[in-house]
Amino acid sequence: MNSTAPLTTLRPATLKDARAIHDLLVYYASRGNLLPRTHENLCRHIRDFVVLEEAGKIVASGALEVMSNDLGEIRSLVVDADQQRRGLGQQVAARLIDMAAEIGLKRVMALTYVPEFFTQLQFEQVERESLPEKIWQVCVKCYKFDHCDEIAMIRKL
User: For 8-156, CATH number?
Assistant: First the structure.
């Protein structure tokens, strides 16, 4: 092992991580790459999140939200802009997929602007209409509901 490599830890998020996660989400939401979340919403859902911490800094995070008794969604998957192309997002997504399987979900979905990322994780593109759990719980409240441009992806577990 290279002693100069930073120590990386993939772990459940805690409330102490909420500000750092929120900062990452704000960065990407301001660029239109994902939907915004308030800090308060993030705190309420902190148990859904995992973080990848490196040298004491949150460099990636993502959440698994349970949508129904068999469907979960990977949400708010972000990697620090300075840490792109290192496989960190894939590490976080793989952990979220494992978590979904551990709790008994049969499918995991994502809405994304980067379908090739999820294709590498064995997701397939589907019509959004095939995911009514997502549409009627979350999408219907979204300001993009009538003009959603995200691509729906699903992986069977």
Answer: 3.40.630.30
Q: How many residues does the chain have?
A: 157
> Two tokens at 46?
């902190």
**Helical H runs in 33-155?**
39-44, 88-102, 115-119, 132-137
CB 102 within 8 A of CB 66: no
Contact 21, 50 (CB under 8 A): no
Q: Which two tokens stand for residue 31?
A: 């660029």
pTM: 0.86
| pLDDT digits 0-9 by tens, 42-83 | 999 999 999 999 989 999 999 999 988 999 999 999 999 888
